[in-house]
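Schema walkthrough. Field components (list of strings):
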Amino acid sequence: MQELLQNLLNGIAVGAIYALIALGYTMVYGILKLINFAHGDVFMLGAFVGYYAGRWAAAHANSGHPANYFIAGGIMLLSMAVCGVFGYLNERIAYRPLRNSPRIASLITAIGVSFLLEYGGQFVFGPDPKFFPTLTPKHIVHLGGIVTTNYQIIVLVVAVIFMGLLQYIIYGTKFGRAMRAVSYNFEIASLMGIPVDRVISTTFVIGSALAAVAGILFGLSYPKIEPLMGIMPGLKAFIAAVLGGIGNVPGAVVGGLTIGIVEAFVGGSQFSNFRDAIAFVILIAILLFRPSGLFGKYEAEKV
Amino acid sequence: MKRLPWYLRDAIYLALFVAILLAASWALNALRFPGIAYYNRIIVMIGINITLAVSLNIINGHAGQFSLGHAGFMAVGAYFSAFLTYFYFSPLVEKYPSAQGALLVVAVLAGGALAAVAGYLVGLPSLRLRGDYLAIVTLGFGEIIRVLILNIEKIGGARGFSGIPHWSNFFWVYFFAGITVLVSFRLVRSSVGRAFLAVREDQIAAEAMGINTTKYKVKAFVIGSFWAGVAGGLFAHYMMYLNPTMFMFLKSFDLVVMVVLGGLGSISGSIIAAVILTILPEGLRMAREVLHTDKDPRMIIYSITLIVLMLTRPQGIFGRRELWQVLAKRKDAVPKKERDDAAA
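Field assembly_structure (string):
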């Protein structure tokens, strides 16, 4: 029982990170019908900004413990800003010129941007793994019978805050309404006076900022970061988005948590060697039996 | 003059091709200068990549089914043929050395056949999925294949499979590349190929015309993965070592990039893109000296080139046309509809 709960908690903590990345995928796919392969690498970029900012903060701390919740929050905001700017430039330079080309062209460009971030990361940051600094005090927490760290709790709280914020932006603000309109039909949305380009850019900025949050949270929980770290979580987050029904925001969260939990259980069982494949098995099963995902709407094809 | 029947023409082409290949491989063997092994290796890798790109072009370009799992099929072919030669054929060759070529062909074709079976299994979900979903499912299948191989101890698992005999060479690699290209050309002009194109252009219209779309989609997968498996077998017997990380989805991405860059559906485009993209990273080795850095900027330049090329020519180098159609610049070389699509 204890082991079960322990696995469940670990799964939820990883799943929350997947969910944050999945939100970026699902928003971009919902609007542009583009699998933004570079998204997982934006997550990596976020972690690295956190790494350098954290080291800088530690080096400039006057005395005592440099780890402090305010500084950690500042580092997270900085990372979000950097990734947001990157997301904006990425859309502006690499995707917008191709919006009217065949979709495959933007897909290949996305792969190109992803390569650029991965190999550029190896060039700039170095290919060797780095140890993510402890941004906040770390201690062990006993919750009922299970042992955890305050980091897992931080991960969950921060993830929930940002998911709530996103839910509010999409369903509670005027911009969110514009976003939904653009994702429903972008030509008609532009006829209704919605600035489609600006909405798309902002979506990329929001998605990338969420990926940065995920990157920092990942760095806190698994403190080894390297330039290729975004590939697998990126793919799994995409699967999470498909699982929940792509384009569907709560679906991405549910999908992320499901993948995280299933992986934690498989990883804790005798089949742990197959941990990396299980997400793909889930994906294939879901696409065969419910191609639109758990919460997606089925769209009949018009002739 | 009356045209010869197609099989005679193809036989003549093949005979000529084999003669040229024999002469070329003789010339390559006769050449001796420092670093020849390195150039030899690049030339062989080009041949393998041509086979892979042209076979992927059948699935992605002709049938229009976007697959991101080609490296998985290649892995199936590579591992199965290596398994056959390592455990069964090597002892035979020790007894009868002259059988080596024939056994290589058997092993490579067997690898292709098993890859084709895998292609059939992967092709089935394409009954229900299309576009991006299919892409991500094939990517998933590729990764599942890789993880399965990783867990089979008999063929090395995570340590990799070493000790594979060095049987494949310039001749065999280009022989199979040539056959793949020939099959691919014959295929597009056949009724099957026409059905592929119809499915690509408009699946619903194709279905209304009485084309069994499912059957042809699966067929495309089976044919494409067969040649991917063959290429994998040749790769295994050239490298003499296999490791599951060689068949990560990044390899599939590389192949898709070749096909799209050459122009989806253009066979000569795939070949040229395969040549360029295999040489490019090697040619960029000098960038390191120019930039005076001890880090390797090759892949950065590679990815920037990729982005710039896609931004400037989203339809690929040749669009859907073949090299000679582009060179001829004859308006009637391509039906108007196709030309418009290529331009769009």
